[in-house]
Amino acid sequence: MTVVNCHSFMNKASLRVAPANRVERRRERTRRDLLAAAVRVLARKGLHDTKVADIAAAADIGVGTFYLHFPTKDALFDAVVEETVARLKATIDAARAAAPDAVARMRAAFAQENREVFKIVFGHAAAYNDVIRRAQALFAADIEETIREGVASGAFAPVPPPLAAQAVVGMATQVLSWWTEQESLSIDTLQETMIGLALRGLGVHAPDAGAPRGGPSHG
Length: 219
Fold this sequence. Notes:
The model is unreliable at about 1-5 and about 205-219 (pLDDT under 50). This protein is mostly helical.
């Protein structure tokens, strides 16, 4: 089974201590502004074509101020990914915890986020980033656990959970990477199609695979 240290991956993003004084609070606000600006610019231009000056301008700060917070553009990109993945992981974990069975937990693994986030986390340039690969391994470990539970309960066909989890994540990564450039395709259509393909591949009947997002159909 894939083992990923979730805590070490998410510590920087999820365990930041609130600044105690005005200077530190101002510094933290500037850092948040840089991260928010980076999300917008990176989603629009991609990592390769984005310059530090582009992000600084979007955050309404000077380039020199940028370098007080991040030594390089790549360091900022890693911080954006880490914080984005931490938020996405928390959302998915909450949805999975509330899900009544393995089928519903698999649906929760495809929880919605916005197009900008998908462009950063699953875009073509991101495939070569180590932080991205670790994030995808983190989600693969969760999906593998869900598949293992589903196989044990009889909800899923007796597939090898590690292999099936990698297949699901591989499909999702490729489809999301492609979708980021398809402006006319809604996220709802994307989500339901991927869920349907994943559940059918795991041996769940078609009516369940096409159920509303609130849970599987029992009709």
